[in-house]
Amino acid sequence: MKNKNIISVFYISILLLAIFLIIFPFAHDYISWKQINLGKIDKMLIYIGISNIIFVFISSICIKYMKNISIKIQLTIFISYLIISTILLFNYSIHFNKNNRAIWKIASYQLEKTNLSKLIISKIKNPIIQAEDINDVKAEFTADPFLIKHKNEFYTFFEVFNSSTKKGEIGMASSRDGLQWKYEKVVLSESFHLSFPCVFTWNGSYYMIPESAKSKSIRLYKSIDFPYSWKFEKSILDRGNYLDNIIFKYKNLWWLFTSTSNANLYLYYSKSPLDPWKSHPKNPIKHDDADASRMAGNIFIKNDSLIRFAQDDYPNYGNGIRSFYINTIDSMNYKETEITTIPNFRGKDKFSLNGVHSISILETSKSYLLILDEY
After folding, report:
1. Which of 39, 96, 318, 371 is the least crowded, having the fewest Cβ atoms under 10 Å away?
2. Is 232 helix (H, G, I), strand (E, B) or coil?
3. For residues 138 and 132, is the Cβ–Cβ distance under 8 A?
4. What is the pLDDT of residue 343?
5. pLDDT digit string (tens) for 30-60?
């Protein structure tokens, strides 16, 4: 009797776990975004939950109609199932993580000015920039695009992951119309990893703060021959693992967003990019929130409103992008609210294949030009 009770507890535990695995992805999506949009990890959890229910159902039938099955055999079947499930889950996780890093590429879309959720049918052939287009280094993937318009020419700066050196470098592509793109070259490389090249203008010159977390600093570069040559100016923040940094000017102050993990967000301000930066008194302005902390692109201004794009890195990196109105930003306060009228750029939607984590939007005469990375 005691052994039968143990088996019953095992089966009930598997059944409860199965129910949780099936319900959790739907509940998480609805609570977070008020919509259901399942990604690869979500579907994997659901499949495991369904397989657990099937296992319990088949096992219960065998026990009912084959009463001579010993407790030892039942335990053997149960343990074997757990081992096989664990191996399959482990193999899937390795395969997913490997592909997740290897196949990032950059795509472009046109959006209506009156409706950012409505695509315009155009002649853009996606992806516009992928590893196969990089001809000066051996590239594994391209990611983190930033869009700039200079003298009627469009430029995109982005990470090129060099598979030979196993570090990121900053590449550049150009376009006359924003539709047809040509890869130019790697324009910035260091002995450490670079990515997420936030480009901005100040005093008539172009500057860049690529992510350089491996150097434990946020490094500021100035263009000496735009867009091809960049010179290191100074480190504006030191002694930190600063990720995906965004800088912009608003109300006579310069503002800097940065993260030290996927789940937090810090804000700094200064009189100019070269002056000392002060930490905001509300820091971290986001804490323990992998759904909406790490920056996903530069600040977008629409109808005099500031819009912040944030990476949704839960349950996995590159799960999607969420949008927030910055309601208040000054030296004492920071407040933001999520935007429901702009789509959450997520995997398996009309914008990307499986995932996305960086976005850049630029206003043109007839539409908004949107560039993002996807896999």
Report:
1. 96
2. strand
3. no
4. 59
5. 665 455 656 666 777 788 788 778 877 777 7
Range of the domain at 71: 2-99
Rounded to 5 degrees, φ, ψ at 36 are: -105, 120
**Cβ neighbours of 90 (radius 10 Å):** 10
Where helices occur in the chain by DSSP H, the ranges are 2-33, 40-65, 71-102
Residue 375's CB is within 10 A of a number of other CB atoms, namely 20
Show which of 99, 118, 149 is a domain's final residue: 99
Asked whether 193 and 168 are in contact (CB, 8 A), the reply is yes
CB burial readout 196-229, b (16+ within 10 A) else e: bbbbbeeeeebbbbbbbbebebbbbbbbeebbee
Condensed to tens digits (0 to 9), the pLDDT of residues 83-94 reads 766 676 666 555
Paired sense of beta strands 368-374 and 356-363, if any: antiparallel
Residue owning tokens 């990470």: 159
Q: ∠ CA(42), CA(257), CA(268), 5° rounding? A: 145
Residue 273: cis peptide before it, omega within 30 degrees of 0: no
Q: Long-range contacts of range 228-235, CB-CB < 8 Å, 24 or more positions apart?
A: 228/172, 228/184, 228/185, 228/187, 229/187, 230/170, 230/187, 230/188, 233/207, 233/274, 234/274
pLDDT band at 16 (very low <50, low <70, confident <90, very high): confident
Q: Are 35 and 54 within one domain?
A: yes
Structurally, the chain folds into a number of domains equal to 2
d(CA 311, CA 247): 17
For the chain, the residue count is 375
State the DSSP string of 170-222.
EEEEEESSSSS-EEEEEEE--SS--EEEEEEEETTEEEEEEE-GGGTEEEEEE
Q: Tell me: the pLDDT tens digits for 339-348?
A: 876 656 665 4
- Please tell me whether residue 258 adopts helix, strand or coil conformation: strand
Q: Which of 99, 134, 154 is the last residue of a domain?
A: 99
CA 101/CA 355 separation, integer angstroms: 11
